[in-house]
Automatic annotation (TrEMBL):
Belongs to the peptidase S1 family. CLIP subfamily. InterPro entries: Peptidase_S1_PA (IPR009003), Peptidase_S1_PA_chymotrypsin (IPR043504), Trypsin_dom (IPR001254). One of its GO terms (molecular function) is serine-type endopeptidase activity. Residues 16-246 form the Peptidase S1 domain. This is Peptidase S1 domain-containing protein. GO terms for biological process: proteolysis.
Length: 267
């Protein structure tokens, strides 16, 4: 009898440990802080541009619900600098992939929400990445733009073909630039206050939770301006991460307790 009680308590302990490991540490905290940051940035709404995008170095630059598709896919959560090949002296980072993000069924792209290990206080514009012409990124190199407004936006654009950002990409070793995600995309911009998108590639937005929040603008397979309701999308996604994290812990605990119960009955 004493052995059964000991075994029951031991398995119960295993169940508790398993429930803690089902979703790795900091996911709940990250989702909460990410969501709180969005709510805190009340000036986001005041920064909206006429075409539905906003451009603010301290907020988020991304496309809206038309491209920012949210599906209830299983999250794959990875932690640690094993995701950041060749990274020097950086604290572990959190990378949460949403594997079913694929706006037009053209490419298998992931949405990545990344908690940065350090912030770049010298950046004058949003942190923008692209690797349509930087294939080395997929093999582990890290790129990041350090572009100011003058470099990023073209005053010559008249509403036709937006300028390509790719020639202005600057390689950097800053920890702001160490992301891991997949896909193939490019970014196109118009003059200040106007964002145009053109091309045949669909990419994945990046949301960075650091000292500054910045992001990735995404190319769709047509040219034009898109309406956006990204604030609610981002809040919903952060809430979903939080709910999924809690639900997985509860389910893991229930399963392990059930296993403990069956084991005690058998013995």
């Amino acid at each position: 009898m004493a052995f059964k009680i000991f075994l029951f308590l031991a398995l119960l302990y295993v169940a508790q440990v398993n429930s803690q490991l089902t979703v790795l540490p900091d996911v709940d905290d990250f989702a909460s802080r990410f969501m709180a940051r969005i709510h805190h940035e009340d000036r986001i709404r005041g920064s909206l541009l006429s075409n539905g995008f906003f451009f603010n170095a301290r907020t988020i630059v991304t496309t809206g619900s038309a491209v920012f598709g949210l599906t209830m896919a299983q999250l794959r959560v990875e932690f640690g600098n094993t995701n950041l090949i060749g990274l020097q002296s950086a604290r572990p980072e959190t990378v949460i992939f949403h594997p079913d993000f694929n706006a037009n069924n053209l490419l298998e792209n992931n949405l990545a929400i990344v908690r940065l290990s350090a912030a770049d206080s010298n950046r004058t514009g949003p942190n923008v990445m692209t690797y349509r012409e930087i294939g080395r990124l997929i093999r582990g190199n890290h790129f990041c733009s350090k572009l100011g407004y003058g470099e990023l936006l073209s005053d010559q654009w008249q509403g036709r073909e937006p300028m390509r950002m790719i020639p202005s990409i600057v390689e950097s070793n800053s920890t702001m630039c160490n992301f891991l995600f997949r896909g193939d995309f490019t970014c196109s911009f118009g003059r200040a206050g106007e964002f145009g998108f053109c091309g045949g590639f669909v990419g994945s937005p990046i949301i960075c939770d650091g000292e500054r929040v910045s992001g990735m603008v995404v190319v769709d397979n047509f040219c034009g301006l898109r309406p956006v309701s990204y604030i609610m999308d981002l809040e919903r996604h952060a809430e979903w991460i939080h709910r999924q994290s809690g639900a997985e812990k509860v389910l893991a605990s229930i399963f392990m307790i059930f296993v403990v119960f069956l084991t005690s009955k058998i013995l």
